[in-house]
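Input set for joint prediction.
Command: fold jointly, output tokens.
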Amino acid sequence: MNKTINLTLKVWRQKSRDEKGRFETYPAQGISTDMSFLEMLDVVNEKLTVEGKEPIAFEHDCREGICGSCGSMVNGRAHGPLKGTSLCQLHMRHFKNGDTLVIEPWRARAFPVIKDLVVDRSALDRIIQAGGFISVNTGSAPEANSLPVPPLSAEKAMDAAACIGCGACVAACPNASAMLFVSAKVSQFALLPQGRPEADRRALGMVRAMDACGFGNCSNHRECENACPKEVSIVNIARLNREYLHAGFVSHER
Amino acid sequence: MRLDAKIPAGPLPQKWDRHRFETKLVNPANKRKYSIIVVGTGLAGASASASLAELGYDVKTFCIHDSPRRAHSIAAQGGINAAKNYPNDGDSIWRLFYDTVKGGDFRAREANVYRLAQVSNAIIDQCVAQGIPFAREYGGLLANRSFGGAQLSRTFYARGQTGQQLLLGAYSAMMRQAAAGKVHLYPRREMLDLVVADGQARGIVARNLLTGEIERHAGHAVLLCTGGYGNVYFLSTNAKACNASATFRAYRRGAAFANPCFTQIHPTCIPVHGTYQSKLTLMSESLRNDGRVWVPKTPGDKRRPTEIPEAERDYFLERKYPSFGNLVPRDVASRNSKEQCDQGKGVGETGLAVYLDFADAIRRDGRATIAKKYGNLFQMYDKITGEDPYTTPMMIYPAVHYTMGGLWVDYNLMSTIDGLFVLGEANFSDHGANRLGASALMQGLADGYFVIPATIGGYLAGTRFADVETGHAAFADAERQVSERITRLLSVSGSRTVDDFHRRLGLIMWDHCGMSRTNAGLAEARTLIRELRTEFWKEVRVPGSASDFNQSLEKAGRVADFMEFAELMVIDALARQESCGGHFNEAFQTEENEARRDDQNFCHVAAWEFTGEESDPRLHKEPLSFENVQLTQRSYK
Ligand SMILES: Cc1cc2nc3c(=O)[nH]c(=O)nc-3n(C[C@H](O)[C@H](O)[C@H](O)COP(=O)(O)OP(=O)(O)OC[C@H]3O[C@@H](n4cnc5c(N)ncnc54)[C@H](O)[C@@H]3O)c2cc1C
Ligand code: FES
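tokens >
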């Protein structure tokens, strides 16, 4: 049922990459508990705009938890307190009247801040370029049912492919590692027969690109899995490690 | 302006083959000398970029988002159609063609739709080879499900995330070409104008959304793959950045805009629940495979759904349309839900909702089976509404979802401006007055993977190009206009926000140019839009500066374009004095309240030419001739 609450926001404001940021405090009053977190920010921004101030910059698009645009730290947790939920799908009914919310951008060496809560995640695209694909030109594909795929493999591949590339795993990791992201893509293809021919090359290429982009190493904190809005499992990291080791030892791609 | 659809001669099934044979080719070694600008990285733009680069063209690709993977296509849920006939239930290219033409209420071109059905199967082959984890049967072969407007199963799906998976496939293919240096990516760029030199589209002017810099980009052809304009209604299922600016700016430069009033209102969305609401969420049409739509028989019945006995429920779609039942096309389902609510039988707090009930399906197939098919959709519903659809029926209501109208294109996907091609939802070509579910993904990928790679060569090989670089006067002129407009937006310094105006525009459009339209309402809407536009340019407040990352400025530009574009939609709706598909004018309905077409006078595409800001647009008609299907009153009974 529709109820309203009042909150205090402490929001990271930073004009640009090179300028220093700071926290600013804003009241968020009369917030309906049916609102999403982003709609709550909209309300605050409308007020700031009318008052002649600059609204808080934050990224968003689909508002359905699928595009991976949104995301910030809320009270130290990537995408806020609710498990398996992106910020846009987090609703205000999960907060209490009088709560104080500290809202910050993702923090990682590989994700420099652009403005306020907006960060540069282009490193993730560079990792995909390094092998996150199956090399098949348009028109050269065989008939779709000529290659049966066990349904369990397809399901597991889909579990991994559910990654939305939001970067929460990196933000949550004490080492700012992108292993969950990389492993999700490597696993999706490793689990499917179509992906096997390039498996070694893919694992080596993507891990090298990850290192080159300035992401840290994985030391099994499992924070990534907890923060992931799509609940992509760290089983994928184990699979990536196997793929990577195998590629490193036996492949011609070394 | 002359509309020549360039439909190849010959019998329908042979047109595409014949056309490809007759189209000039560009020598492989020469392809790299042609530079092609692709705007948009949804299914259409990403698939076109990848395929053209694979052929050897030099491709420059632009998108608004920080990463091309975030295009709105990512949100498509339910699936993609193809005429594979794997279930052996009688499907064929001809039937997919026929269903699509009929579903579109006979307002699409036969030849285009037939080609779409023809290439549909190759799309599935391509996507499987890319590693898209489609749903599979126990034996490892691909699974299918049904969508509205069809009596068989031809929809391929990857859980409720089909768009995500297809887009990531196309994105990956494009990234492979980016790594190879064949696609040059320009993310966080917004195209703000098209550059036309000597009658040819030769480039774009774009704003770098990080720095605010205005950039010029030149090429031999421009492909607009910028999606639909559903956000003109403010509330829609579209992602927030979806806009009409790229296509509308091209319209102002001379590209005809076709059927702008054809918009699709999707029957199954989570109902509106507050004035702060920023967007509406779709519940995929696939749910109508197992969910049953109903309202209480007695108006004003406020009991909880589970307390209403079977005999006091009206499964109105099953009752009125026994052969298609809950799977009637979207326009029919939406109108019927509205009708029930108008009669006071709507449910929920606002009375603007109907039930979509899974109790029977769960009883029949078990909770686990239903969870496997729709788990993520049920979860999303629960997150948004705080209610569990496994135990209580979903509440749904129609919402703006898709736009069938778009820039006019010929059979080659070229607009009325030479060298300007339009792909995906941004063009008008295949869905007539109503799109069937799971056909937009099919069309976006057909255009990008298979149509444009074959047709663009004909244009390039057959055209002489003058030396037009970014120093050309046409670029300087376009850039000046873009900059002036930005300065103007920032200098109004009024007291109302951009969203405030956008919401008001949306309400005008929803009330008067939405699910059901009247001549008086449309005329009134035109006045209201003009008044709002005047007020916008006096009262809007756009904070920040032009020379940095400024989301308010981005929005302001898009809303300013919507304000002009909305009027064109209303003009088109007024000119079409019939009802067809999603365009329902109350004056034209059958006794059973179905849309009544007027094939005598309106069996045409309405293509509008821009004639200046102060004058009305000029209407051009492309007659639609049906040689292979018979025009009938659509019946889903
Ligand atoms: C919630 C939802 C579910 C859907 N489910 C289905 C389904 O199950 N099956 C189906 O067939 N269809 C479905 N659809 C419809 C389908 O998703 C879309 O029609 C289709 O994805 C559009 O693809 P596109 O490539 O034409 O455009 P989009 O995916 O909208 O991409 C547009 C691109 O253009 C860019 N762009 C826009 N303007 C500019 C500019 N000015 N400058 C630079 N770049 C610009 C954007 O950044 C983006 O990259 C669904 C739609 C919605 C809203
Ligand atoms: S806005 Fe798309 S995932 Fe949140």
